[in-house]
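Need a sequence for this fold. Nothing fancy.
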């Protein structure tokens, strides 16, 4: 492991540059984003994209550096610049109320949509009109946990690299391909041409998830389209799908939130695909 430097000054240009990445326009210009907390930084340190190490810079308090010596070592192995920083510097860079003592600067890692299609995905989550970064990150985490092959954020959805989205994914940003800025019509058309059945998840859907499972239609390659937290999917987006499917409510709850519905749908598809359940 390389030598850890002295405490970096709060007035350092490196601190100022990292702080600016909290704003989307600076992230887009520099093609860099923040990963906050030990779990996200650990995943970033071990990740490579396009032949390059994803983690380029790491700020850590002395206490965090001692506690997570393996992460510091991984950052050095990745060729990242490592800075010791006091808690006020970490708080200045971080976007959380209670920082965890470690913030990494990472390269953008979104994949071209064409590459995702060329890989013949079997399970895909499409976030259409999803505006809340916490929800976007949580759905990404759900997709990762369910074994999805990719996530697509349409051009009407939140920024993949919003710090809240990165935190909510708890490292899943680094686990599966994600395409960004794809118009929903293009996403659906491309997936269909790749042999993927497109299902729109909507509480007012005509088809029932249980019925879909009973019919044996869930074992084929599937993309789930998830809509806005407040108003769901617009009619024109629902019309693009092969079917509009609702998660059945067997109890008295009015509805499910976006991330919960996404988890139910993705796991239903994952189970059917692993069991080989499909029509002849």
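Here you go.
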């Amino acid at each position: 492991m390389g030598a850890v430097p002295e405490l970096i000054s709060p007035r350092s240009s490196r601190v100022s540059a990292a702080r600016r990445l909290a704003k989307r326009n600076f992230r887009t210009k520099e093609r860099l984003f923040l990963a906050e907390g030990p779990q996200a930084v650990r995943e970033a340190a071990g990740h490579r994209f396009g032949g390059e190490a994803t983690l380029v810079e790491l700020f850590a308090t002395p206490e965090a550096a001692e506690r997570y010596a393996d992460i510091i070592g991984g950052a050095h192995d990745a060729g990242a610049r490592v800075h010791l920083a006091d808690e006020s510097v970490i708080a200045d860079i971080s976007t959380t109320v209670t920082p965890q003592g470690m913030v990494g600067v990472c390269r953008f890692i979104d994949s071209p949509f064409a590459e995702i299609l060329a890989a013949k995905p079997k399970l895909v989550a499409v976030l259409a009109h999803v505006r809340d970064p916490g929800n976007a990150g949580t759905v990404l985490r759900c997709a990762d946990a369910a074994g999805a092959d990719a996530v697509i954020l349409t051009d009407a959805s939140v920024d993949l690299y919003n710090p809240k989205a990165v935190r909510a994914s708890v490292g899943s940003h680094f686990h599966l391909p994600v395409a960004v800025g794809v118009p929903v019509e293009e996403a659906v058309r491309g997936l269909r041409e790749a042999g993927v059945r497109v299902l729109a998840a909507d509480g007012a859907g005509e088809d029932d998830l249980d019925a879909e499972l009973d019919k044996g239609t869930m074992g084929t390659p599937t993309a789930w389209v998830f809509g806005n937290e407040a108003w769901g999917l617009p009619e024109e987006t629902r019309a693009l799908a092969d079917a509009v499917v609702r998660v059945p409510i067997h109890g008295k709850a009015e509805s499910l939130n976006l991330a919960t519905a996404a988890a139910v749908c993705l796991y239903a598809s994952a189970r059917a695909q692993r069991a080989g359940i499909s029509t002849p």
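For context: The two ends are 56 Å apart (CA to CA).
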